[in-house]
Specification:
- Strands 1, 2, 3, 4, 5, 6, 7 and 8 form an 8-stranded antiparallel β-sheet that branches.
- The protein is an alpha+beta fold.
- It contains 4 helices and 8 strands; from the N terminus they run ααβββββααβββ.
- The radius of gyration is 16 Å and the shape is globular.
- The N and C termini lie far apart (48 Å).
- A hairpin with a 3-residue loop joins strand 3 and strand 4.
Length: 213
Amino acid sequence: MFATSDRTPLPRAFFDRPVLEVAPDLLGRLLVRTTPEGPITLRITEVEAYDGPNDPGSHAYRGRTPRNDVMFGPPGHVYVYFTYGMWHCMNLVCGPEGSASAVLLRAGEVIEGADLARKRRLSARHDRELAKGPARLATALGVDRALDGTDACTAGDTPLKMLTGSAVPSDQVRNGPRTGVSGDGAVHPWRYWVADDPTVSPYRAHVPRRRRS
């Protein structure tokens, strides 16, 4: 179990930087999800960066839409999208307002509130699997589109808040291609994770979906 005493909220300035700076710096930070049943605290162990118009893999590559509107800022807000008709995924918006960059939270270690996360993740065989993958992470925390646009840097009460935690030393950070990204965006080594951490999800290359005949 990882322990940290630094519960200082991350300032908005932390997110108001280029996405490739913010993404690896999010490793080791804490995300607190406040629910009516109690809080769940997650230590972030794996992320992916998406760089808006400069990135064919980004939802904002072709411009602004109702779905990706939150990606355009302000930084420090939560972008939640629904995928494959089944799952939600959670991102943190970064960069200057209007840049449409964001960091996908791919995996983490539940360090508080595991009993609440287990109720949402009944198929998890071990606690290290509670948030092992972006859809599992969102499910464990009870994150859906209703939380799209949430300010994770506000000083007041909020259902999602980012805390300082403990940044991971650079010699313990690894990077490689993003999971499941196809086309020109597949070449970017913009997935970052904590070396040898058991909560990190396995890498999977993009596999084209077959249309039903």
